[in-house]
Write a structure and sequence with these properties.
The complex is a heterodimer of chains A (about 350) and B (about 525). By secondary structure, chain A is α/β, with parallel strands linked by helices. Chain A has 8 helices and 19 strands. In chain B, a hairpin with a 2-residue loop joins strand 13 and strand 14. Classes of the chains: A alpha/beta (about 350), B alpha+beta (about 525). The complex binds zinc ion (2 copies).
């Protein structure tokens, strides 16, 4: 580990990060700074990569995150949100002997990689990330490091996400072909929802997008934070006839809910990286599967490991065995951290 | 290839017939020749390759991907063709993608030893969706839930025509069907075909409604048994021999014994049955012969095919369809006496003086292989489709049984938010006392209002969930109607029903009063 060359004199042995970073039941623990990254149980001090509920939990004493993530946590948790200190991207901050920086991860608005430096060694905890462009958040930045901690949600070579714009074009084509049917799109409330809206706008779709009630709070927040989603309306209360041929967004769980009955002859759409697998789409009764993901696909996972130049790869969650195998084929040391508590499927 | 692959993809996921039709007509209208014609042939089953076995596809992928990664991926995806389509590493600069027509003509023109290199080159040039369509096409596994008839209906709809018109031409045409598309698009006249054994669209009967009989004059009508087999059209011209299903699909391949009997120059309408020395076997026996690609000598011996004739549509090139039924029947009788074809007999006419005679016949018609009575006007010409009036089918009453609802599954499309597929059972005494054993599944027979009530009942009485299926408390009695029941080794209950549908929902009846399996078994015929 930490095999970076040093100049002159006796080499000061860099401290091995597996001695100062531990996996505990609460999550990834940075011992010299006495804090966790994305802990799944309440802890004293936490650094949070992004606002998804499997990474940002309530009940912590103090939280460090980007300003956007802090706003998202407040919007999701209300009074239960922990007190959060905002750290601007790229700005270094010392926590004990550890230097911490947050660097954009390209996953959702506010998402960040956590760059940890201690005793001559740099560890990047990437949280969830993607490399594909996303109009609703800052792009992923490569940080050269010794240890790269990566997710592996789509860690199999069958996962290759097509350009999201091409998938949006398929949705628009379906609206042309079925102008009498509401197109009900299942999207995750944070990130996917707003990305789909922004992509629709870029494709020239200018009608209002109708939203399930569970999506409204975060879209309001995105609006406040200056992310242009175009015009949207609550689906609840809209006349059935007015929803013909419109795009209606809802959480994936509402696709087969009683809720969908208010729509005129709904055509079930889902936007998720899992839609690449036919069986997944069929199980959910999806008529138009769109492969749009906020996670890195297989080629991106492989390219990112190489781009960081990390000699060590730690895999947090997803299909670890294949990614560990591929990292070793690249000539890197690799291991799975066996982190628990990350949602794998619907949270995508 | 892109438009074809996208069409296949959408068809697979689109449950409704109208949705499929719209996708098909849009595709045929947008895509040019010859690609759309090859796509049509692929959908109607007139284009089938066995250019590659799944093993070859897997071997090609193994050259590109580490076996560990392939194994984990295959485990996750669960389907070989899909795994290969998804995992295929895409070159940084893809080659020019082939069109569907190019794939079809190149494959047809190349030898077996050349196909692996061809397939590899194409896989390098295509996207994942296209690769999947290609693999399914060349391994002969293209199944998208579209019948040949539906594909033809879509073509006919492009020109506002009836599917019967396309079916009548079909066997005189060949892929890629340029003249067919030109005709439906109004750019040329109807294609001229000369084929005595071409399919003639069938004349179908309408069900006899309650009270309708009193309005009909008995003297105008002729009566025959309605046979419980498969409606077929048998056509020969001395050289070619054909057996068509009611939708014009050729099914002769599965019935070589019948084909052999077509030694004449005539087109006949009749019922395909399994019969031993003229004695008709239960429908279950016929089922052993349906949908078989290969027919073994044992199957031919155990389940010999037979056709019971009831109409003569053409004789030695003369079209008899404009003649009245009575005249056609006389011609049929004379023809049969003269030709004496093997493996065929005549469906007898049922003499009757008035409706009460027929009513009695129908009431006693519990014999195997009789579904009811056909009524045909003596002066009716043979018309394609289902004209109302000249022909009626008067089915014998359905059988019914009281069952208990056991499982409900969410439906598809419009019904995807409703529990609309119902599995029901009857009582059987086992080692641990009386228990309910599933005997069938029904997903129609109820009104929309009843569906809403059933759905609500299922949600309120769920005891367990498995994916889209819910097990419910065994408390609701469903009266199920069905046409017949036969033995089945594939079902746990040992029986299988034909056309089960929900007849009545017995909200009032306690589950303990539902029927026993033994009651159902006693209704098995033959
Ligand atoms: Zn996330
Ligand atoms: Zn995550």
């Amino acid at each position: 580990m930490c095999g970076r060359p040093h100049i002159g004199g006796m080499p000061a042995l860099p401290s091995r990060p597996d001695r100062w970073i531990e996996t505990r039941p609460e999550g990834l623990y940075v011992r010299p700074g006495d804090f966790y990254v994305d802990p799944i149980r309440p802890v004293g001090r936490a650094v949070i990569t992004h606002g998804h509920s499997d990474h940002a939990r309530s009940g912590h004493g103090a939280v460090l995150a980007t300003a956007e993530t802090a706003r998202i946590m407040a919007a999701r948790m209300g009074a239960a949100a922990p007190s959060t200190q905002a750290l601007a991207p790229g700005v270094a901050m010392a926590i004990g002997p550890v230097t911490v920086r947050l660097v954009p991860a390209g996953h959702v608005l506010g998402s960040a990689q956590v760059v940890l430096e201690h005793a001559g060694c740099r560890v990047v905890v990437s949280g969830d990330y993607k490399r594909q462009a996303d109009p609703t958040c800052a792009p992923f930045e490569i940080v050269p490091c010794d240890v790269f901690v990566t997710e592996a949600t789509f860690g199999l070579p069958v996962f290759k996400h097509p350009p999201a714009e091409a998938e949006i074009a398929r949705l628009l084509d379906s609206l042309r072909l079925f102008p009498d049917r509401a197109h009900l799109v299942g999207v995750y409330a944070l990130g996917k929802c707003q990305r789909v809206m922004a992509l629709l706008r870029r494709a020239g779709y200018d009608r209002p997008v109708y939203l399930h009630g569970a999506l409204i709070a975060l879209c309001t927040l995105y609006d406040e934070l200056g992310c242009d989603l175009g015009s949207w309306l609550p689906a609840t209360g809209a006349a059935k006839a007015d929803l013909k041929g419109q795009v209606v967004l809802c959480p994936p769980s509402a696709l087969s809910d009683l809720w969908s009955r208010r729509l005129p002859d709904p055509l079930i759409v889902a936007a998720s990286g899992w839609m690449r697998i036919r069986q997944r789409a069929r199980q959910r009764g999806v008529e138009l599967p769109l492969v749009i993901s906020d996670h890195a696909d297989w080629p991106e996972l492989l390219a990112t490991m190489a781009d960081t130049g990390a000699g060590d790869i730690w895999v947090t969650h997803g299909r670890e065995e294949a990614l560990v195998f591929a990292a070793r084929q690249q000539g890197r040391r690799a291991r799975a951290l066996a982190m628990v508590g990350r949602e794998e499927d619907d949270a995508e | 290839m892109r438009a074809f692959a996208e069409l296949m993809e959408r068809l697979v996921y689109t449950p409704s017939r109208n949705g499929k039709l719209r996708l098909l007509t849009d595709y045929f209208g947008r895509v040019g020749d010859p690609d759309r014609g090859w796509a049509l042939a692929a959908l109607t089953g007139d284009l089938s390759f066995n250019a590659a076995k799944p093993g070859l596809i897997r071997a090609l992928a193994a050259q590109r991907v580490a076996p560990e990664l392939f194994g984990w991926s295959y485990d996750f995806v669960g389907d070989l063709a899909e795994t290969v389509a998804l995992i295929w590493p895409e070159p940084a600069v893809p080659a020019a993608a082939p069109g569907l027509g190019e794939v079809v003509t190149t494959l047809a023109a190349s030898g077996r030893s050349e196909t692996p290199a061809l397939i590899e080159r194409w896989l390098d040039a295509l996207t994942a969706t296209e690769r999947f369509a290609l693999i399914k096409l060349i391994t002969g596994g293209l199944r998208v839930g579209v019948s040949a008839r539906l594909a033809k209906t879509a073509v006919a709809a492009m020109g506002g025509r009836d599917v019967g018109e396309v079916e009548e031409l079909w066997h005189g045409l060949a892929a890629p069907y340029r003249e067919l598309f030109q005709w439906v698009e109004g750019r040329s006249g109807r294609p001229v075909i000369d084929d005595r054994t071409a399919f003639r669209p069938l004349m179908l009967a309408t069900p006899l409604e309650d009270g309708e009989l009193e309005r009909l004059a008995p003297a105008d009508y002729r009566a025959e048994w309605k046979w419980d087999g498969i409606r077929v059209q048998v056509a020969g011209d001395g050289r070619s021999r054909r057996i068509y299903s009611r939708t014009g699909d050729e099914i002769g391949q599965a019935f070589p014994d019948m084909l052999e009997a077509i030694t004449f120059d005539a087109v006949l309408d009749g019922e395909l049955l399994v019969a031993r020395d003229g004695v008709v076997a239960p429908f279950n026996d016929l089922q052993q012969r349906l949908n078989r690609k290969r027919v073994t000598a044992k199957m031919l011996a155990d389940f010999p095919a037979w056709v019971r004739l009831y109409d003569l549509l053409a004789e030695e090139g003369e079209d008899l369809r404009p003649l009245p039924f009575d005249a056609r029947r006389s011609r049929l009788d004379a023809w049969f006496a003269r030709v004496a074809p093997g493996r065929m007999d005549l469906s007898p006419m049922l003499p009757f003086a008035g409706w009460p005679d027929l009513e009695a016949l129908r009431g006693n018609a519990r014999a195997r292989s009789i579904e009811g009575i056909m009524l045909k006007r003596g002066d009716s010409p043979y018309l394609a489709g289902r004209p109302k009036g000249p022909w009626f089918k008067w089915k014998r009453g359905p059988l019914t049984i009281d069952t208990v609802l056991l499982y409900a599954q969410r439906g598809h499309g419009k019904r995807s938010s409703y529990y609309s597929d119902f599995t029901f059972g009857t009582w059987r005494e086992g080692q641990e006392g009386w228990a309910l054993v599933p005997v069938g599944k029904a997903y129609f027979g109820f009104t929309d209002a009843e569906l809403v009530k059933l759905d609500r009942w299922v949600r309120a009485h769920t005891v367990e969930r498995f994916g889209p299926v819910r097990a419910v408390a065994p408390e609701l009695v469903l009266e199920v109607a069905f046409d017949s029941v036969h033995r089945s080794s594939r079902h746990k209950s040992g029986v299988a029903m034909r056309f089960p549908r929900i007849h009545r929902i017995r909200w009032d009846k306690p589950a303990i009063e539902a029927d026993r399996l033994a009651t159902l078994e006693s209704l098995i015929e033959g």
